[in-house]
Model the fold of this input.
Amino acid sequence: MSTQEHDTLSVLELTDSDSDGLLQSMNEQRGKTSLWPFVAGALFLLYFPLTSAMDTWPGAVHFALAAVMTAVVGWVYWQDKMRKVTVLFFEPDATAADHFDALSSALSSAASMRKLRAVVSTSRYADRKYSAGASEGLKFSQASLSLGQGPGVVANVDVPVVKTGRTTLAFYPDRILAFQGKSVGAVAYDSLSAAEERTRFIEHESVPGDAQVIDRTWQYVNRNGGPDRRFKNNRQLPICAYTQLNLSTQSGLDIRLLGSRERGFEPFATALSRMA
Done:
């Protein structure tokens, strides 16, 4: 069995010449050390000697001291957060705004699919009779589609956000920002390939309400496609018409999403091509 891994590229390898200054600033900001854990630890160690020295003082004083220390930690935490925030402002022309609105609407439509997952790896089976007749096996992670902001970014517009187990893509009007932990990369729309395709998926779980069952197979099959009688409890499985979206670049980005509604990603892929 051969296996191909997906979504393994570090976003720091995603470079867009128009975004060099922005990426450098964002990565420097996100790499700053948070001060609030040190402040919280110092105040925690200081609290007990102070309360021991004020042992005869009213309980309200002890409560006030704890409240002040908590407020100090909260203020430092907020300052840490503000130091790492990137503020972006967009004012696109009418044509660009129309394309971006179409992209946002298409993502909202795709987000309504009942089952959505990211494909972590694809494996080719040597013997299909033990895999319900499937030639490939997929390993999944959680995925989500939403309108919002990229991690640590505040903009004047909500943008389409695609989250997988490893990478978050935020589709801003002028570029795509890719996030992994504290690292940020950028992709130009004209360098992104968005390919949507219909796929036959053997569903081992419950069939989502928006999925179309197009055929059936057996968990263990004979060469003629019938059930292999050597196996007890050989259950019949539905084959559904699902949709897959592949987002890739020549630099190595490889993100694959599987959705339960046939052609569910088609409007989003079309809107992405127009953004280019």
Observations:
- The chain has two domains: 2-30+87-275, 36-83.
- The longest strand covers residues 236-248.
- The radius of gyration is 25 Å.
- The helical segments are 20-30, 36-53, 59-83, 94-111, 266-275.
